[in-house]
Amino acid sequence: MEVIISQADVVSKKAKFAYSVGHVLNDLCASMWFSYLIVFYHRVVNFSNASAGYLLLIGQIADAISTTFVGFESDRTRTGLFNYGRRKTWHLMGVICVLLSFPFCFNLCVKCEHSDLWAQFIYYTMFIIIFQFGWSCSQITHLAMINELTHKDDERVALNSYRYAWTVISNIFVYAIASILLGFHSTTDETDITSADAYIFRTLTFIVIIVGAICMLIFHIGLHESTQPAEDSEQRLQLSLTSSGRLKRMTWRRFLREKEFYQCAFIWMCARVILNVTQVFLPLYIIDTISTINRVFVAIAPLCSYVSGLLASFPMRAINKRLGRKATIILGLFFTLSSTVLFWFISDLKDNLHIKIALISACILLGIGTSTTNICSFSLTSDLIGLNTECGAFVYGIMSFTDKLANGIVIAIIQQFNPCTLASTTICASYYRYILTFIPIGVAILTILMTLTLWKTNIGGNRHELEDDEQNNIDTTNENEHDERTPLIT
């Protein structure tokens, strides 16, 4: 059978590297956002638990709305600004917004740090909204480029793995720097974080911005995006024939009519909820639930989680190929469930050494689980889009919309009912223990059940149709040429 390739089958190593670092700025900022936002606004700025939760919710809502908007507009864009490329133009816009706004999100209110808390709340809200819009621009367009760089399945998995590997590296970098800053700049209380530590977050933020900006230069200089108008690409795609017939041209309405679209969105959402809820409340769990160990573990524990996640991402391509996407997701979820068992029993231990060993072990299991499920959820979405790159940004936008909204609502609810005050109590210790155990367990079980509903589904593989005149031509060809097949486009 003759095989015609409509775009590059294998992405060059240079292009893979440039692509993989294209989300590093977002990843560095997201690491601080989810790990230290509640800690910073509650313990440093002195907002209430509910107010800190509402700031995160506002950011997640702004992000969710922005992803949908960016998804639509990025797909509609022709060649981008000055023929720079439609995806890279939006990506660059996002980078500028993030660089200009994020430093203000983790710094005391400039010239207003002694103002009323409601005024400071408005101040931070403005910069958070700008930051989240920029973050969405970069994230959605970066994801949408995967299906435009290659149509080959294992190459897409590789790009997702490299992308996630740099996500993990970014988190490792943030936690490593945070552990150094928290360890070497000790205050009188070595087990807690207070307003006296504001300069630590400020320093960490500027380091994140500088490193992220360097990676963005590598991405924009090193990766070439086709400047061909999107409509021309769509027309070629619409005219593509496979042995099963003409590939349907998908619109956003057609995607919304596919059952698999909602199943993949649910799995994506759950994978991100597990990752982000554990990322947000792990530092608070360490400070309040197992309060006997040094505060430097606020950085060391998640660092161990992301190191194990990085190591788990390397064999992901081979594991996906051997077990299949869905079985690999379930395997990752079992690692996550194993970590929750340890999180439940850690606070019952009395010896500090045993507590540290159990905490690190739980974080390693959690890192393997979240890395596996997130890479596979990204790959499932790539499968859903398939050859239909004309709506790629929209699909990723809706996926991101679901997870941003779900994360914001879940975390805001947790903070609304949070019984903790600045003074740690027994009820506070139990609260974070419940959060870090039962929410991941519940979400993981739901994800397993949803994955099983997709077990025999060929995601994105049933979008071919034959028109009557084409069917007649193919029948004639089959009679005259002894069942010679139409060339396959992959």
Attribute tags:
490 residues, mainly alpha, Growth Hormone, Chain: A, three-stranded antiparallel beta sheet, 17 helices, 5 strands, 73% helix, 2% strand, disordered C terminus, transmembrane, MFS_2, membrane, symporter activity, MFS_trans_sf
Explain how this protein is built.
GO terms for molecular function: symporter activity. Keywords: Membrane, Transmembrane, Transmembrane helix. One of its GO terms (biological process) is carbohydrate transport. It holds the Pfam family MFS_2. Belongs to the major facilitator superfamily. This protein has about 500 residues and is mostly helical. It has one domain: Growth Hormone, Chain: A, CATH 1.20.1250. Helices cover about 75% and strands about 0% of the residues. It has 17 helices and five strands. The strands form two sheets. Strands 2-3-4 form a three-stranded antiparallel sheet. A hairpin with a 2-residue loop joins strand 2 and strand 3. The longest helix has about 35 residues. The radius of gyration is 24 Å and the shape is globular. It starts with a strand and ends with a strand. The N terminus and C terminus are likely disordered.
